[in-house]
Amino acid sequence: MSMFPSFSLRRTSALLVASLVLAGAAVAADQPVRDYSPSDETAEIFPKYRTAVEAKDYATALAILDAQLAKVKPDSYDAALIYQVKAQTLLQKGDFSASIVPIEKGLALSDSKSPTYYDERPTRELVYFLASLYLQEAVQSKVPSVAAGYYAKGVKAMERWRTLVPTSTAEAQLIYAQLLYNWAVQDQEHVNKDLIKRALDQVEIGLHLSVHPKDTLYVFKMACLQQLDRVEDLTDTLELIVTLKPDSANYWQQLAGYYLQSERPLRAALTIERAQAHGHMSAPKDTFNLIGIYYNLGQFEKVAELLSTGLQTGRVDNEIKNWELLAGAYQQLDRPFKSIDALKQATKAFPKSGQLEFLIAQAYNALDQPEQALPHLQAAIAKGDLPKPDRVYLFLAYVGFQLKKYDIALEAAKHAAEFPEGAKDGKNMIKAIEDVLKERDAKKNQA
């Protein structure tokens, strides 16, 4: 199936049925004079036919036409007329697939005559709709070879239609592009680039036929450019679309994605911010992606700004890791006290997290303020929820030792030694503390 939206066959068929003019109606002065008319026998079936159609008894109407078709000469005007009326009937019935054969036979028969049985107008309309029907059949077919046959016939029909009309339409160009593109990508492993280029040419024509082109034409243009690896042109097209249609979230997401794909992270970041200004890409995941881009670019001022604001407004998920990232950004900016303040704010949101207390203690110790670190280490132990408790106990032992609070240090070292990971360092710390205590006691005894 095609990944792209398609035209409405039912709507198009209604227009066709309404506009087709039977050969035999008045013709323009510059058209060939057609002196064709149905035989009396064929003319006599139409009152019964119309009665059946008006009652929507399509089975009876088609049976009337088929019965008469079997009686007339295969190359007669009567046959061409019945094929045309039969096609119209099937279209009214909504049986689009079945209408293909009578359209093909009617056109072939008309084309074999000079002048043709059908006027110019019904001819071009039948050719146009036949191309649309081929597209539908190709898209719905599950047999690649069958689909390819329909695509080829559809392209040929569109080529003929273009010779019959002075100016194309945007909708026709879309059908033409769909036929070429879908045919080209039938085998995803061997995409036909030549067909893709032809599809792109038809899309470009369609885009210039309307003051406000439909999104589907732009979608096909982008698909073609992607298949041709023209990422620069693709992003330029998306830039144009978001300018024309800034309220479409999907195009903003695509544009940001392609900038990342083409290794232009700053452009991706600016695109996300532009989208957010229009009310799009404001979900926490989008903001977090934006933060990640700026972090990788080393723009820590921007990271801190986005995290701080986002955590307060809900644009960033209120998670411990995001508070830690904010603290880390301030550390990168050499603002240690801002980093500590961020971690303290986090403890209000996560009062049971010992890990946050541990990070605060580490930050104070890095500032050579062990006395400030100590209560946070003790709070970390009391709260728990520590991924590596042995490290916290060892750090508490070290800070206690540094502050000459040996009782606290010794107890912490003993707890550290209880963990397999902290056994060696814990025992070394215990020995160091006990040696200091022995030396202190010895001095007291000497005094």
Task: Describe the protein.
With 447 residues, this protein is mostly helical. Among the domains are: 299-351, no CATH class; 353-447, Serine Threonine Protein Phosphatase 5, Tetratricopeptide repeat (Alpha Horseshoe). The chain has helices at 9-19, 40-43, 46-54, 58-69, 77-93, 96-111, 120-140, 144-164, 170-184, 193-207, 215-227, 231-244, 249-261, 265-277, 284-296, 300-313, 320-332, 336-349, 354-366, 370-383, 389-402, 406-417, 423-446. α21 (389-402) packs antiparallel against α22 (406-417). The chain is rod-shaped and about 140 Å long. The protein starts with 8 loop residues before the first helix and ends with a helix. Mean pLDDT is 91; it is low at 1-8 and 10-29.
The low-confidence runs, each spanning 5 or more residues with pLDDT under 50, are 1-8, 10-29
Strands, count: 0
Strand content: under 5%
Shape: rod-shaped
CATH class of the domain at 353-447: Mainly Alpha
CATH superfamily of the domain at 353-447: Tetratricopeptide repeat domain
SSE arrangement, N to C = HHHHHHHHHHHHHHHHHHHHHHH
CATH topology of the domain at 353-447: Serine Threonine Protein Phosphatase 5, Tetratricopeptide repeat
Largest sheet: none
Distance N terminus to C terminus? 96 Å
- For the CA atoms, what is the radius of gyration? 39 Å
Percent of residues in helical segments? over 70%
What's the CATH architecture name of the domain at 353-447?
Alpha Horseshoe
Total helices: the number is 23
* Helix/sheet category: mainly alpha
What's the pLDDT, averaged over the residues? 91
